[in-house]
């Protein structure tokens, strides 16, 4: 090739190379996700609010980047304590950010009476501006959570439909004369449309006006039986009625307060501690009432209530002693001996459970202490206990050092339908046994190995049999505390029959206390009218007690 031609070709190649090397945007064609602040939370500071998960308030940005955190006028909202402006001057502030976002300046303990300007950045070079502040606002709640009417000595429990805004009284005729009303409404709201001694008629209107004077809900009185869904609890109806910390109730738990056991009677929830103290609380609000005592001469290490509202209690029984279970229709009633059993085979016996009605048909169980595991079950028929039935050790498990490390509960009120076992053992799953001897896994709880799996409760609700189980905290780590409710009507199908799960992230915010040791309990309570199912759960090491409610009302 001619040398001059070779030079020309080489020069053109170099020129082409330079022309082709234009600058390329590395993000060209890349789909960018969201960025910026998703929400901001501000919490009261100070020792009194240290473990109070309710003393924190959140807000999301509006279209202009303004984030206004509304602090309630009263705190707690059910109290008459008006929040002073000074509480806003020293709040602990945090933000939830989109992936890849960072903000300047950072957040921390801040005076939220002032407006704080914050800029969000991400790796793509995008920025967003925000203005963050807090303000005290009047309450906006305007709903009834209960509405009961007494007329001519008869109590009519109102069934509230929150979607249709109706209250069904299931009253005969078309009028209830000379009415007295007891209701629970949103804190600091006002109720109009009712005066003491008035008559109620089908179609009457009752209005709840919020504390802010703006938001309101008008309810229509219905003299009709509300329709239920065909089966079980309405999906999506589960809601947290309340969550409390014992410390905020004025109750200081200690190591001697294990175990903690739950029972209910009417509108009262009872909490028995290992020290023998029984605390009482309002079932619907979680408000503390006070302490009560069993009748003179009786003690209890375990306590539970049945589906009819009777309370069963028992003192633990060491080997060679009698194990006695008593039943009362009220906490201060006269105890009736339900079971007397000569304990000759177990180092200790306790942690009683009941399925059914102890004054009708039921199954009562007790768990044993020690490496032998197992326990005892009794069939109750017409309020009378039959012979004791041994619940054999589950070979997949090794029970630990006390009665409340494990739990046995009847699958139904008929012992021939089998039992479930659960415990802090070698295997943490829920096991089912049709004959109290051979076991199969009913629910794989998939634990991390550090949880306290030792409490179950079973009840029938709108034709479904529900089992609630709690996973409490043994140590400060693990997926705990948490609890779940599953349909146990068909034991072989329980693994896919979950109704509701409350994750540990909702319950461990207050932090690990560790003062009681591994003790927790769970209890299902069905309302007398059969429209509501309340599930109570408590964990001593996290100092928490909570209530979730479900209904079966056709919406």
Distance between the termini: 90 Å
Low-confidence residue ranges = 2-22
Helical fraction equals: under 10%
Radius of gyration of CA atoms, rounded to a whole number = 30 Å
Shape summary: globular
Structural class: mainly beta
**Major sheet summary line:** 6 strands, antiparallel
Based on the coordinates given, report the CATH architecture of the largest domain: 6 Propeller
How many helices? The count is 1
Can you tell me the CATH class of the largest domain?
Answer: Mainly Beta
Name the beta content range.
35-45%
Number of domains: 3
Description:
The protein is mainly beta. The protein has three domains: 37-137, Immunoglobulin-like (Sandwich); 144-222, Immunoglobulin-like (Sandwich); 253-524, Neuraminidase, CATH 2.120.10.10. The protein has one helix and 44 strands. The strands form eleven sheets. Strands 26, 29, 30, 31, 32 and 33 form a six-stranded antiparallel β-sheet that branches. A five-stranded mixed β-sheet has the order 11-12-18-17-15, with no helix packed on it. A four-stranded antiparallel β-sheet has the order 2-1-4-6, with no helix packed on it. The protein is globular and about 70 Å long. It starts with a helix and ends with a strand.
């Amino acid at each position: 090739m001619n040398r001059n031609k070779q030079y020309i070709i080489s020069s053109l190649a170099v020129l082409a190379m330079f022309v082709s090397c234009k600058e390329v945007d590395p993000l060209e064609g890349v789909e960018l996700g969201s960025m910026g602040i998703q929400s901001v939370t501000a919490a009261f500071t100070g020792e009194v609010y240290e473990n109070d998960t309710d003393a924190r308030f959140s807000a999301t940005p509006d279209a202009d980047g303004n984030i206004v955190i509304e602090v309630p006028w009263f705190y707690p909202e059910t109290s008459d304590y008006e929040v002073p402006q000074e509480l806003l001057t020293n709040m602990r502030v945090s933000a939830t950010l989109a992936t890849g976002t960072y903000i300047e300046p950072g957040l921390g303990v801040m005076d939220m009476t002032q407006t704080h300007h914050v800029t969000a950045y991400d790796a793509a070079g995008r920025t967003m501006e925000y203005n963050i502040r807090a303000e005290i606002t009047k309450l906006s709640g305007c709903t009834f959570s209960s509405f009961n009417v007494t007329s001519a000595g008869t109590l009519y429990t109102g069934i509230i439909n929150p979607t249709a805004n109706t209250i069904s009284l299931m009253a005969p005729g078309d009028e209830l004369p000379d009415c007295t009303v007891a209701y629970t409404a949103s804190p600091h709201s006002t109720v109009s449309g009712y005066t003491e001694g008035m008559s109620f008629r089908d179609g009457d209107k009752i209005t709840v006006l919020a504390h802010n004077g703006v938001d309101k809900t008008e309810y229509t009185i219905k003299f009709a039986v509300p329709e239920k869904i065909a089966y079980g609890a309405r999906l999506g109806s589960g809601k947290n009625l309340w969550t409390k910390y014992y410390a905020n109730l004025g109750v200081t738990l200690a190591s001697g307060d294990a175990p903690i056991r739950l029972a209910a009677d009417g509108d009262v929830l009872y909490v028995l501690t290992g020290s023998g103290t029984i605390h009482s609380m309002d079932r619907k609000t979680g408000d503390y009432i006070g302490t009560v005592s069993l009748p003179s001469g009786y003690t209890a290490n375990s306590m539970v209530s049945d589906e009819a509202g009777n309370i069963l209690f028992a003192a633990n029984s060491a080997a060679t002693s009698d194990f006695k279970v008593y039943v009362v229709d009220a906490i201060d009633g006269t105890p009736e001996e339900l079971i007397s059993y000569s304990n000759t085979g177990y180092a200790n016996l306790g942690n009683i459970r009941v399925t059914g009605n102890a004054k009708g048909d039921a199954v009562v169980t007790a768990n044993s202490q020690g490496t032998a595991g197992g326990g005892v079950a009794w069939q109750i028929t017409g309020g009378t206990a039959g012979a004791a039935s041994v619940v054999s050790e589950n070979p997949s498990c090794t029970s630990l050092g006390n009665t409340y490390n494990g739990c046995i509960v009847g699958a139904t009120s008929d012992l021939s339908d089998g039992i479930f076992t659960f415990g802090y053992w070698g295997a943490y799953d829920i096991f089912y046994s049709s004959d109290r001897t051979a076991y199969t896994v009913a629910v794989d709880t998939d634990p991390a190995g550090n949880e306290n799996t030792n409490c179950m409760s079973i009840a029938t609700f709108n034709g479904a049999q529900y089992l609630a189980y709690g996973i409490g905290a043994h140590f400060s780590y693990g997926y705990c505390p948490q609890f779940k409710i599953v349909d146990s009507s068909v034991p072989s199908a329980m693994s896919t029959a979950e109704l509701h799960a409350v994750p540990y992230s909702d319950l461990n915010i207050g932090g690990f206390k560790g003062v009681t040791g591994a003790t927790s309990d769970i209890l299902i309570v069905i309302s007398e009218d059969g429209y509501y199912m309340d599930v109570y759960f408590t964990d001593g090491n996290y100092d928490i007690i909570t209530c979730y409610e479900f209904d079966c009302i056709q919406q």
